[in-house]
Amino acid sequence: MPSARLLRWINVISTPLCTLNGRDRRVLGNETVTRVTRMEPSPQSSGPSQADWSDRAHALPAAEIAARLGVDVERGLSEIEARARLAKYGRNSLGRHRTRSLWAILFAQFRSLAVILLGVAAAISIAFGEFAEGLAIVVVLAVNTAIGCYTEWRAVRSMEALHRQSRVMVEVRRNAGLTKIDARNLVPGDVVPLRGGDVVTADLRLFAASDLQCDESTLTGESVPVGKSTEPLADRTILAERSNLAFRGTAATRGAGAGIVVATGMSTELGRIAALAQSAEAAMTPLERRLEQLTSNLVWLTLAIVGGVGAIGAGSGREIVEMIETTIALAVAAIPEGLPVVATITLARGMWRMARRNALIERLSAVETLGATTVILTDKTGTLTQNRMGVGQYLLWGADVDVAPRPRDGLSFMVESRPIDVADHPRLARAITLGVLCAEEVADRRDPMEVALLDAGTLAGLARAELLARFPLVRSYEFDPALKVMATVHREGTRLFAAIKGAPEAVIARSRRVMTPAGCVPLSRADRAEWLERIENAASGGYRVLALAERRLGAGDDEPYDDLTLIGAVCLIDPIRPDVPDAVRSCRTAGVHVVMLTGDHAATAAAIARHAGIVEDGTARVLEGSALQSMNFAALGAAERDRIFAANVLARVSPENKLDLVALYQRRGDVVAMTGDGVNDAPALKKADIGIAMSGRGTEVAREAAAMVLKDDSFATIVTAIGEGRVILNNIRRFVVYLLSCNISEILVIGVATLAGLPLPLLPLQILYLNLVTDVFPAFAVAMGEGSDDVMRSPPRKPDRPIIDRRQWLGIIALGVLITASTLGAFVICLEELSLSHQLATTVAFTSIALAQLWNVFNMRGRSETVFLNTITRNPYVWAASALCLALIAVPVYVPALGDILGLVALDRHALALAIGASIAPLLVGQLWLALAGVTARG
Fold it and tell me: Quick one: CA dihedral 680, 686, 688, 693, positive or negative?
């Protein structure tokens, strides 16, 4: 048999040089190859690149690959040659991406217009001797710079996991013997044996394979181990179907084989994915874009106001020192210094709350991004499914027996939704028994199909150990790739029988009888057609089907694969996670579109999508990777775009496909969340607006590239996180409105007073104190709100919608004007009516605007909410912040030491009453306006 020849080579690779049939020949799969002379170029020569043989290794005979690489597969390379090739091609490690230095990241923090403006204000203050003001501004800049620098520095760690993967030892043939070396020292042409349980450390062109299977789920998304062969394949064979290659980062689950290293380092498929992840730039998040745009607009507005006020002041003959002080006050008033601090703290608290719900956030801005998510591109294996094979059904004569994933009433087997006892169904018991006997007790339980059969036996009370005690194993026949079957022979009393499992078409073709409730009857042509149709229907439903049969044997070495009795078929599937369908429905209610990406075949992918609830109308709109590869994503036509956007399932997709799809949705204006757990998902995870990786089943590479990691690997956690993100987004909008209305009032107070010829009502240091203390705490309290219950029953916020829209800008201006009017009114009364000193009038203005800003937080309720019971009044943090701010306002007014620094004096009861009265007026008008707006909205 072919497997015997392959096994012989496996024995050869573990022993010294030998000859076959007395000739100097070597067997490579089914090819006989004469020893070739090594022609590897010297390190200094201009020899071929790895791409010259690795790109087409699957399409070339193994003999030709050996010839091109100048290697004798039984001797391997010599140490001298290996060192020369290592010098030429470099280490078998994933090249490091050139990262920005800490100094470069630090310097980048000072490129913001707001930072530049505040920096200029600090320099002018210090130049004119206002050291306290200058120092205060510098402290604010230092805090914001530290936050930004730390956040960006964290991003450079995303590729480190890829490099840690390669530091393992590997067995290799060199100098005609086996030796273990650091996997980083593998070179093209090295001969590497593979056995079940080994991790593949370079891309190999297999020339020997005996029942060899590899788990490639982290690379291709294929949830079932792939059987390996040695024959050349078509040149255009896609990655997931290159069965004669073993790829770096995958693992052998069973069998044995050997291959020639055809690619190392960044030339491997894993290296190519690493390069994609390195080159995939993480897009700026919606919150970052909006805050940057908002800050930029404020800076230009400030410059315009400063220019206008300065021109008017100069024209009216004001002192230069006075105008400079006015300019600094305007600059400080315009920039909401508390905005980045509050935003950071708010997002950090969101991270903490999500962590309690099993979602670990790696990047602060990802919290807000979740709330704006419009599309989820979800991986299948390990995300929607459990990444393990399980028995879903047994097909018997006249009956389909369903296997429940969880026992009900002690039973897990059901016919037409009615639980049954296996002991009462001999045919089912026999099918389970044959599946268990014919399954291998795989080391480390790596082969999921074998494990599924064994688990089903345990569930039915037919454990392998007990069955082997009843039916001792006599001999076994390994899986024959040509016949597509395998068998084990057992003793039952004085007789022998063979348990057979394999491809349904192969087993049915060799079966002569079938077991029925009435006993074994001949298998007619019509019966065969009916069985094949049932199996085809099961396969279209996402199942992988194995047929089960047996044969009674004589005492001799009878061939086990002829004259079989068909018992039934077992249907295996990677089960959907129980909470996935409900989570998908929640996404649909929330207006979030879910698209499944998978490396599986189209039929399997469509079935999984139906089980997961992604398909609404029962018809899966599947687009295959081969179609995507033929498209030019840089210049897609309208029809091609519509075809992609209409698909809810994308099958056989490659890492490049995933990356292109993320970019395509982003260009349409979507906020894209990408979920995944494999190495092949890393580039798209990094490119997406928010990459979501799995903690338990996910690879470290995927976790490092992602912005969020699910601790429970549950798709449902994503829905919870999206709801939390929406609450945070609403809260951020509220506190931005609050902060800007407060800052607008400060700008107007300074600007209007200057234009009216009044002395400055507020000094720069007083404004800075207001911005950093009385603004921050109420804003933070607003951001701590729990949100409304219907947050997931509305569509996501449009990605192109600014953080503050036209209606909210009108509210900001209106509130700012109200606070300005009350503050200037109190200031003018102090100067003109009460004839108070400028310092005392300034203190009244400071107290008035501070209290007015504090009461302004209650104007942040929703229009549809009532005055006394709303999001703000139910928030305990608002009341705590109000109490704290009252104390902080009183301290500089009534504590002389701080009052001297800020230029404030103590107020008597008449002045204090004036300040309080002036501060309440904006609250009353604001509440009246909200009430009228609520009535209008309801009408």
Answer: positive
